[in-house]
Write a structure and sequence with these properties.
This protein is mainly α and about 160 residues long. The protein is about 55% helix and about 0% strand.
């Protein structure tokens, strides 16, 4: 025999907020789904049933429930900050790296490589350390194309 289901009580103001959130407006899909989880739990439906209905894991349902009980509606519906380090390149450093990639290649090289650009960025003190892969990701968001010309600049 399993554990008895502890009743989940949703405050009336929170219920109205969630119902408005799930019925109209433009909200993130995860936010709407978390709201639906809380509404179904408040109706007395078990977490496993809610998970089946909404197509998610039961653990997700119980985590949303726990966050609502411990921290309130805003925390239960919202997103926690994602892990990961801060950006290595700010806007100025990105512009400097792109400008560097558009200059003529160093002596002895036909074009800039990502490893050469990474080394030069460290040499110019744009960043303390950087990998060639990060340089590639930065340049991917620009119109940089190393094979477009000898300087690497993209021509229209």
């Amino acid at each position: 025999m399993g554990r008895p289901i502890t009743p989940f009580i949703l405050r009336s103001a929170d219920r109205l907020t969630i119902e408005a959130l799930t019925r109209k407006g433009r909200h993130a899909g995860r936010t709407v789904q978390r709201g639906r989880m809380l509404l179904r739990l408040a109706d007395g439906v078990s977490g496993y049933t809610v998970a089946d209905e909404l197509g998610c894991c039961a653990q997700t349902v119980y985590q949303v429930r726990r966050r609502y009980i411990e921290s309130g509606l805003a925390i239960a519906l919202g997103e926690a900050p994602r892990s990961g380090g801060p950006r290595r390149f700010d806007g100025v450093a990105r512009a400097a790296l792109t400008a560097l990639a558009c200059t003529p290649a160093p002596t002895g090289h036909s074009r800039w490589t990502l490893r050469l650009l990474a080394g030069k960025a460290v040499e110019l003190c744009l960043v303390e350390t950087i990998s060639h892969e990060t340089v590639g990701q930065v340049l991917k968001k620009t119109r940089y194309s190393p094979s477009a010309s000898s300087t690497g600049a993209w021509a229209r």
